[in-house]
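Could you show me just one protein sequence together with its fold in token form as a worked example?
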Amino acid sequence: MNPEVILLTEAIALFHAHLQQRKMSQETIRGYGVDLRQFQNHVTRATNGPLYVDEVTEEKVESYYQTFVTRGCKPATLRRKLNSISSFFTYAVKKKWIAYNPTADIERVPVRNQERTFLTTDELQAILQHIDQPIIYYFLTMMANTGLRVSECANLTLQDVDLTKGIVHVIEGKGGKNRDVPMNKALQAMMTKYLQQVRPSTASLKFFAIEKTGGVSPQYVNVVLKRAVQAAGITKPVTSHTLRHSFASQLVQTDTHVAVIQRLLGHADVRTTSVYMHANTTALHEAVGSLNFIHEGEVDYYEGEH
């Protein structure tokens, strides 16, 4: 294969357009953009002229990667940085701009899997009771009872929330995918009350709308939530995404099948959902305590043998 000669700057711009065509979320596209700009600046710093894609070697990528290792960046950050570049070069290989992905053999810093922080029902209720902004109270209640991402909840329109059928239509969620999430009767009643008594009179089509802005920003949601967490005396690290974790955790504890949880959360891969399949220490002890594979007197018998 004879690779096509193309400038790195031009290739990155085409990759950005490709991500938009795939209807990836703006946050994801922004993240790729930041990482690739940093990478481009690093590899072109020592070049007097323009740099072509096929001039980017494994050594150049390794040099960029090591700058973040030296800074002591967290493993998850290192993984994201390298994954962004790897995705770009995978695309470059497909477009036949290069013959080989220069990130393929770079040794990645291992990322330790950590259990997700989640809230118990009592903790969640305690936090909600300290929410000092009514619209955010209903916003977080929607998140906790549907597992929506904060951006998905903020983007809901009046048309997306069908209170008659009890369905939330998530349009172009993460990865540009649509999904339907059902509401239980209690949530339907609460959202009906929100529309009738709490939502301001505004021309905005957003379901959750503050009169001044016509919407709700994820940043503002987290600011209000942080105040409530502190007021409730919760010491766990809590963000709006913790409510999504809590939703999944509750489903796991009620023995909901992982495929159902996957569909509700909108995960493309069930392996992503599997991180929620945690169990607390009490549950583990109860599970082991229920086993009865040792016959009465068997312990004394083997002690006597030795």
